[in-house]
Write a structure and sequence with these properties.
alpha+beta; 9 helices; 23 strands; binds the ligand Nc1nc2c(c(=O)[nH]1)N[C@H]1C(S)=C(S)[C@@H](COP(=O)(O)O)O[C@H]1N2; binds molybdenum atom
Length: 433
């Protein structure tokens, strides 16, 4: 069960990694127990316990600043040091917006969303991808074969979790409390899913794919899958849907799906199956784990906050809505001087962005940002605008994107049971000295 943690505690892993002393002081409360350095008590103890999912019987012996091994999860998380841990089992971590400032997200800063465990073996050698179900010729392919037999393409593609922004819904929906950082845009190198499906020969009654990965279910039961979602066959055949074996010109990090993953830009991140082993073509909408109930589905009509909605009134989320993110300045930062370059990205599923506007007066007036074209379809678009502040004080910088169909970001979005699709205007607080 997820525990709702206040933002500082939520970021404890990053907090410890960045500033062990400050974290130590805040969490271990050395002031009250000066001679018991590292004595975990009160809220600090409760928080640590919540993150670990259990009480810590020997907490009195824990050295100050120690990151419990369960949280550190050795090398894997070390490679993701700047991220904020939302849950360690399954491991979920988001990127603070200011670490998304570069036009392309680095592997180190790319968020992690797992529904189950991490496969023990992620070697490219010996990896096998099966294409079966309603095809003329079922295929079993090595990664080397994919590279040899199909055109290899490199595209910058956005992956965003459909639950990004869930933290801001009230009443709070269950699940990982993503704020802004369940999104990234990296270069992925791979082959087009459609080329591989065409080679297998898609039978005419196929309506959906069923995507399967190698990650184990947390129960340890080998017959259960943590997640198996699918794509409409139309989306599966889109030009920018990749079977990727590289991320930013190097191996995909283990946590992001090494050695092979799907990348489906513009649709819920859950469509981008990691550690991909099988694509099964079906003549029905796929009914694997996380395809039904409230998973990645929203009510067909607006509902009141907290309202119960019968399962038959939900529909599967397809494209994600228009959205923008401010990556500079960082929120709660101090600005000295009279102006600052406001920068960020904007994206809209299956569409492009037409304009981005920025406001510093709570939306009373907007000025347009300089907007770059996407490096390719499926990439986010970078934007910037130097903003001058009329006088010292507290400001909020807001950004609002409008897409090629004229859809624009709302100031707040209606509640839904799982807190999906939050594309409200991004607001960043700054103090101008
Ligand atoms: N095999 C597998 N693939 C998966 C998941 C998973 O738990 N297992 N999580 C999905 C979800 S919900 C998201 S948002 C993206 C996140 O990709 P990332 O962890 O590389 O950022 O992976 C998707 N692919
Ligand atoms: Mo997700």
């Amino acid at each position: 069960m997820m525990t709702r943690l206040p933002p500082m505690q939520k970021g404890m892993f990053a907090f410890f990694a960045a500033d062990p002393e400050a974290a130590d002081k805040a969490v271990f409360d050395r002031e009250s127990y000066p001679d018991r350095r590292g004595f975990l008590r009160g809220a600090g103890l409760a928080t640590m316990g919540a993150l670990l999912g259990a009480a810590i019987p020997f907490h009195r012996n824990m050295p100050a600043g120690l990151i419990p091994a369960a949280l550190a999860d050795a090398e894997l998380l070390k490679a993701k040091e700047g991220l904020v841990l939302l849950n360690d089992r399954p491991m979920n971590a988001e990127t603070p917006p200011h670490l998304l400032d570069s036009p392309i997200t680095t592997n180190e800063n790319f968020f992690v969303r797992n529904n189950g465990g991490i496969p023990a073996n992620t070697d490219a050698d010996g990896w096998e991808l099966t294409i079966d179900g309603l095809v003329d010729n079922p295929l079993s392919l090595s990664i080397a074969y994919l590279k040899e037999q199909f055109e290899v393409v490199k595209l910058a593609l956005v992956i965003e979790c459909a639950g990004n922004g869930r933290f801001f819904f009230s009443p709070p929906p269950g699940g990982n409390q993503w704020t802004y950082g369940g999104v990234g845009c990296a270069y992925f190198t791979g082959v087009r899913l459609r080329d591989v499906l065409n080679k297998a020969g898609v039978k005419k009654d196929v309506v959906y794919t069923a995507n399967v990965g190698a990650d184990p279910h947390l129960s340890g039961d080998p017959d259960r899958l943590p997640i198996s979602r699918g794509l409409t066959i139309e989306k599966a055949m889109a030009e920018d849907v990749l079977l990727a074996f590289e991320m930013n010109d190097t191996e995909i990090p283990v946590l992001n799906g090494r050695p092979l993953r799907l990348v489906v830009s513009g649709w819920p991140g859950s469509c981008s199956q990691k550690w991909l082993t099988r694509i099964w073509l079906r003549d029905v909408v796929h009914d694997g784990p996380k395809m039904g109930g409230t998973s990645y589905r929203v009510p067909r009509y607006p509902v009141a906050p907290g309202q119960d909605v019968p399962p038959e009134d939900f529909e599967i989320i397809e494209r994600l809505p228009v959205k923008s993110l401010i990556t500079n300045p960082a929120t709660k930062s101090d600005v000295s001087g009279k102006s600052v370059e406001v920068r960020g990205h904007a994206w809209s599923g299956d569409r492009t962005i037409k304009s981005v506007d920025v406001s510093i007066d709570f939306g009373a007036s907007w000025t347009s940002a300089e907007l770059a074209a996407p490096v390719n379809f499926g990439a986010w678009q970078n934007w910037k605008r130097t903003i001058a502040f009329p006088q010292a004080g507290y400001y909020e910088v807001w950004s609002r994107a409008t897409d090629s169909e004229g859809a624009t970001q709302p100031s707040a979005i209606p509640w839904n049971p799982k807190g999906y699709l939050n594309n409200a205007i991004h607001r960043v607080a700054v103090n101008v000295a």
